[in-house]
Design brief:
Layout: H1 3-13, E1 15-17, E2 22-25, H2 33-54, H3 81-103, E3 116-120, H4 127-136, E4 144-148, H5 153-160, E5 170-176, H6 182-197, E6 206-210, H7 215-222, E7 227-230, H8 244-253, H9 257-270, H10 280-292, E8 299-304, H11 312-324, E9 341-342, H12 354-359, E10 364-371, H13 388-405, E11 410-415, H14 420-440, H15 449-475, H16 481-487, H17 494-506, E12 511-514, E13 524-527
Parallel strand pairs: 3-4, 3-5, 5-6, 6-7, 8-9, 8-10, 10-11
Antiparallel strand pairs: 1-2, 2-11, 12-13
Helix pairs in contact: 2-14, 3-8, 4-8, 4-11, 9-14, 10-14, 11-14, 15-17
Bound molecules: 6-O-phosphono-alpha-D-glucopyranose.
6-O-phosphono-alpha-D-glucopyranose binds near residues 177, 322 and 448.
Amino acid sequence: MDAASLWQRYQDWLYAHDGLGFYLDISRMRFDDRFVSEMQPKFDKAFAEMEKLEAGAIANPDEGRMVGHYWLRDADLAPNGQLKAEIKDTLAAIDTFATKIHSGEIKPPNAPKFTDILSIGIGGSALGPQFVAEALAPVVPNLNIHFLDNTDPTGIDRTLAPLRDKLSSTLVLVISKSGGTPETRNGAIEAKAAYAAANIPHGPHFVAITGHDSKLENMAKAEGWLAAFPMHDWVGGRTSELSAVGLLPAALQGIDIHQMLAGAKEMDEATRIPELKQNPAALLALAWYFAGNGKGEKDMVVLPYKDSLLLFSRYLQQLVMESLGKEKDLAGNTVYQGIAVYGNKGSTDQHAYVQQLREGVPNFFMTFIEVLKDRDGGSPEVEPGVTCGDYLSGLLQGTRQALYENNRDSVTVTIPEVNERTVGALIALYERAVGLYATLVNINAYHQPGVEAGKKAAAGVLQLQTKVVAALQEAQRPLSLVELATAADTTEQIEFIYKIIRHLAANNRGVTVEGNLAQPAELKVTAKR
Ligand SMILES: O=P(O)(O)OC[C@H]1O[C@H](O)[C@H](O)[C@@H](O)[C@@H]1O
């Protein structure tokens, strides 16, 4: 396509939202008009399904649940008075709690004010709060936030180390919709242990954000935690950033959550319009479908050219991949759907893997996130008439051009600046695009059956460990792995047993191993007395 036609195509496909100062450009995706007309019936269906979802249909059939994250930003859309009240009451409770924490009206027993937050959660109970903290936390936040999002002992130590002297002014948020996620439970137990070691009762420092009647909620009640906030059954983990999960930590840091909600609401209104060209989420879904042939054949590389948006692609990874990565479609056919998402930030990644993107395997499409405002205040010149921000902008435009010339397609999302409203709008945009795309490819975007398999297998390994240690203690003599597996009555699990023993030995956990660990057949294992 020559320059004039490309410019025309750019203008024909440019979506602009005046209120948000937001633009979406899908002109560098090489679809033609025929593709767009062929997709129209699929979009008609997607718009209709979305309307039903927003009206309170059971849009997550496998779990028998409504899907209500859009109501969080406009409670009046919720399908009944009780839900409306739940949304409004939760928001009011978050506002009140954050205000009282900031003023010191709610204070820890042994310090004048809370100064730090330790946020414990994983997946949808961590990625949104982490993304938003990185994007929006003030340079000097009301409270400094720290995250525990794993069950890695070294990681836990690293997070807790700077907090050891500040436990008396730390507020611990334990976030889990189900209230039973092992990594989060473990993090909470480790945090409690830190409080116990410092002789500080943990209850007045701990806050739960969790589903009704979950183990976590019951624990919070039983242990007299400072507060508990609800996570609604009809909000999925990966779409929970604008529920208490994201709003409470944001408000505590001094981020304007009402502006986040307002930005999301404006984007919701724009992405509710059942007209492809007037709906930026539909345009995104169209681009994704075109890129991957409706089968996720190409990965989505997300490159925000703004440091504060570094965690956006990580956040999107869960939103997109857990929603769209499905074996079965809604009719039960095996489809192996999904779109892989990765990316960090530009221009940094240009000095890492963009070489492959430009010249290597063409298995991706790009999403550039452009931010128009460089910074508050003026910029020094790094060359005559040129600033750092000009470089950043030039590098984005140049990379887009260089990729396009080599048949690598891209989408460009432009926002005026990174602030509460635009971040809320970005979250809403991608939530809706995922929902629409799911209907285009006929899958349930709101369940995650595949996650359970690994969790069940892990639980099995831990049960096996208990069995193996008991068998060793009973034997009271060195056993080979085969003997140990026989004694534990689990001969088919011998490889797991080897790994369990190797891990226990590495951590001085009550087993002695004689022999070379690289020669499993020769090992003799004994329980330490
Ligand atoms: O909030 P939680 O119930 O602790 O869940 C945390 C995460 O765990 C699971 O593995 C799910 O796949 C995620 O969708 C969820 O966000």
